[in-house]
Amino acid sequence: MADFNWNDLRAFLAVARTGRLTTAAARVGMDHTTVARRIAALEDGLGARLFDRSPQGYALTPHGERLMPTAEKIESLTLLAASELGESNQALTGTVRIGAPEGFGSYVLAPLMAGLADRHPGLDIQLVAISGVLSLSKREADIAVTLSAPREGRLIARKLTDYGLSLYAAPTYLDARPPIRTRADMAGQRFIGYIGDLLYAPELDYMRAPDVDIHVGLQSSNLIAQLQAAIAGAGLCVLPDFIAAREPGLRRVLPDAVHLDRSLWLVTHADLRSLARIRAVTTMIAEAVKADRGMFTGA
């Protein structure tokens, strides 16, 4: 084949994963014309069209599909070589993007950022705390904290911790209504919860209570928004204990009758797990959670 370089493959992988030239350009730090030029050079060198272009974006052709696993192997070897050189210089450099649910990301990971930056000043840490899931296979993140273990893809997962959820409300809400002493007393109350058709994980479907008619009158796709609404006295809300326990403006309701258990998983891509910077960040996350295990489990 004709001459080409690693940056051609970087451009190819970015476009393949995003489907958009401008998005891919931002991901690899090139302008979109450079990405387009590199894709064209790679196609010329291989003598094959790798993408079908349309107004909707870029889609891999059969030739592009065949190139994808080889390009990813080259990417993994390139990253590993760079990591090993960095380790030999006893310095961790580069970018690590962490994807996490907004509650865990905001209340647990964000406070860790200062220590991580001090320990590894050469790293650029990106924390994406969102109501959704980032794809490690598409390299939308390097590390992900998820509510369940992945069932497909070349992903490595380990359980971080179990955690509990309970029912909470503000005193201003509770004091203005009849006492809630049993599960039956929840009927007719105003609940705060997720928007059903925007749930990104089945583990977030809290509001199924066959013995009580629950009405979720206030809905948000964002846990932090639900939390703030509960603090403001808007209604009853199921919240992770490790978050609600930090908020003095909330009371736990029916602690013996309403409780859920869920888990958090730490996930990395198999091709990235041996990189020094990935190991450093995952180790710090796991150690921090282990040190505060009681905050999650109540034990």
Structural notes for this entry:
The strands form 2 sheets. Strands 3, 4, 5, 6, 7, 8, 9, 10 and 11 form a 9-stranded mixed sheet that branches. 40% of the residues lie in helices and 24% in strands. With 299 residues, it is α/β, with parallel strands linked by helices. α1 packs across α3, α2 packs across α3 and α5 packs across α9. α5 links the parallel β3 and β4. It is built from 10 helices and 11 strands.
The percent of residues in helical segments reads 25-40%
**Binned strand content:** 15-25%
> Strand pairing plus helix content: what structural class?
alpha/beta
Write down the Rg.
23 Å
Specify the number of helices.
Answer: 10
Strand count, sense and barrel status of the largest sheet are:
9 strands, mixed
- Poorly predicted regions are none
Please state the overall shape, judged from the principal axes of the Cα atoms.
elongated
Distance between the termini: 62 Å
Number of beta-strand segments: 11
Overall average residue pLDDT: 88
Question: What's the SSE pattern?
Answer: HHHEEHEHEEEHEEHEHEEHH
Write out key terms for the chains shown.
single chain, 299 residues, alpha/beta, 9-stranded mixed beta sheet, two-stranded antiparallel ribbon, 11 strands, 40% helix, elongated
